[in-house]
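Weekly sync notes, structure subgroup
Attendees: PM, AL, DS (notes)

Item 1: joint prediction request from the bench team. They want all three components modeled as one assembly rather than separately. Inputs as received:
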Amino acid sequence: MLQSLIWFLVIMIVVPVLYLIENFIRSMMPGYNKSYLLQPIYRLMKLFGKRGMKTNDPAHWFSIVSCWFAICALFFTVRGENILFIFTSLVMMELFILAGSWNAREPFGSMAAQRGIARFFICAFTFMVSAASLYQVTGTLSLKEMMAYSWMHYLLLKLPLAFLAMIVVLLIRGSLLFFDFNITGKALNILDSALYTPYSGWSLGITQITRWVEIGVWLKLISVFLPWKPWFSFTVLAICYLAFLLTDGFIPKARWKKVARNAFLWGGGMSVMNFIWLYLF
Amino acid sequence: MSWLLNNGLRSISILVVQAGGCRGCALQFSMGMSLENEIKGISVTGNPKHADALLVTGCINEKSREAILQLYEQMPEPKAVIAAGACSCSGSLFRTSENNLYTTEDILPVDAWIRGCTPDMHEMLEAVVRAIGASLEKEGSRKI
Amino acid sequence: MMRKSWSEKQSSSLAGKWFTFKSRGYNLLMINATQAENKIILEYILEKEGDIEIVKASVPPNYEIPSVVEVFPQGEQMQHEITQRYPISFFPRMTKHPDSSVIEWGPFHPLLPEPVKFRLGLKDEVIESTCIETGYNYRGLEESCAGRKAEEVLEMLERTSAMNGFCMGLAFVHALEKMHGVDVPEKARWLRMFLMEMTYLHASLHSLSHTAQSLGLAACSARIFKLIGLYCEAAALISEHPQFSGVLEAGGLSRDITIETLYTVNAIIQEMEEDLKDIRDQWEGTPSIARRLKKNGIVDDRSARLMTGRAVRAAGISKDFRKDSVLPWSKLSYTIPQAAGSNCFARVMLMMEDALLSLELIDQIAEDMPHGDVKSPCRMDGSGEAIVREPEAYGTLALLVRQDEGRLQELKIRSAAALNFPFLPQCLEGTEIHDLPLVISTFELDLSSMEK
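Output from the run, pasted for the record:
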């Protein structure tokens, strides 16, 4: 239990730190907005000091429920629980954010929710097929047992494509590189952070925390594939994620339908191929 | 609570509203955002619900007045308004009795003014921080 | 209010005149409206290679007359401005009311260059129809200028648009000089040309940064802003105002710019060349960028011919708008870039090429700068009328100036944006909503100069 608690705290800290580092390095580049080292934290604190968000009352509460499910997912992950619990919590987390966005009766919020559903389907499909592959190889759905198996038998060698598919899911969830659905990313677009349109003040702060927790869950989940000690695998993935964050500004943003197609082909396709490969060989 | 509020000075989301003007002040502000190294923590947003401050440039006519008031209404408290540039502060050369233009002060409570045509980019960012400081101070005294 | 219609005979007579001029190769330069006792006088100013013809129509208030758009589609925005100021309307109305799901965007957004509201009829995120609502920029500049002295008007015009203020000021000064027969010293003409090229460069860089932002290329946008920073550094050596307000004067310039200053400005400006070429190669060579740009913002050939600026050259039509000016551009050696495809890609590549051309011309002008005075004595207190057509950053602008004993009687501005703007809705049809800012950025709408 203590170890799980430590992992929980480490992940809760590491993901914001990644965003802090990315934000700081980016702000050092010529032409970018300058920011403080702790900028994302200051933003979060500021949001919790806001009041008078009367225009979007019902949507606020969706963010709290969503955050609760994200924390549950992280808790299940660090405990090494059944992967289906984690999946269900992540699904609930996403659905509440989407429902909040839809409820706002703002056209851009609804449009973003529509895209969010497509994103949700692709991620869910990829994750489910990859989970099935994991089960096929390890014979268990318990994350703890999968970790033990990975350590002994080099899971990555048997599931290389499923690993890459999960990386695609990570990029989709982080709205990065070629997998940005233009609904929550930092790059300016017509919708801005449209999925978060109805949220402001503390509820926006909570959605920010939810996002960080969710990225932590994915990093921890994907680290299962790597054949090293858990902390080392997690660190390697965290560094990779930081590299993705930093290169994001150099990649042009594509239409969401194209992104969805790419995401489905790469994420879903690779996970399916790996699954079929397991059956055939 | 005041500690939370004070973080507002280090993270400022600005909604830039360019009313009827030459666009010079808005461009100068974007330049400041990219090239200014001393003042940190300011970012631009397109969503009034995510904004802390409204930076108004240009002369305001009846049509843009309504749009600006709607945006201001959606911003969460504490919020600041900055009048940037001569047109926004006083109407500059364009304000005559016949053409029914407003200054920012005519329609909103302004927290900071940046005069000049075109104002210096450093001064613009400084005024933004000053305005947020003023709005946070007001918020603090409201709580006491 | 109920509008009465003109008689069929009057309507067909006016339309007939337009058709006659159109068949003779004339194009609509601007529409001027004035209100006299109980009637509104419309002047359709038509132009063919410098030859000006005016078709007049006298309309009682609250009447509806035929729209010029059927014959000259580029006149839509000019008519729209008239309907906002005078009790008159035009038929048929061109405004489309979308019947599919409607979404509004604007008037204020970081990706919009200036305040404007788009009401988009969407089907599966593809734009089916567009209604563009303007008027957020309107300042009543033309009315405010009436009765003022030339110097005051010049000061106002220079502040009309951050991109084209200098061009507008220069067009006004040229109109005054033409009216009063002022001979401008050679050095002043060359310096004006230098400042115009600086203005073009500034506008091209801003258009590029807007396009980079619309593409989601944050790093590239930051890089272009660095180049704009270089421009500002150079411009600060000439004037404290980045748009050179206060430098122009009727008869020349208000101050001399030394050759050393020009050399320093040129040296700073030339530092951009490498970066610009690099960005151009990067955009041209990245398939995802090139594909997206090529797929969007396609303007048909017929419309492109009626437009101005890069939109014309992007359709493969060679047209040098600098030749419209009285400034000595003909003494420089250059080739006007043109492109094919009439899409966003062609226009963006022209932005790059035009910026590089401006660098080359700035270099040539600095090298060949003549010596001498920069101002000739002149008096601007006479009366007269002049119509001038001058190049501006996004095409050509036309200016009608009427002066009476040193006071401005009437001023009418038709900017490049007013010509291009009416073609935006049809260009947006079939565009995905995601690409809307991209198409807008390549249209380079200078709304502040359009709406005045």
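Discussion: The mean pLDDT of chain A is 89.
Action: AL to compare against the crosslinking data before next sync.
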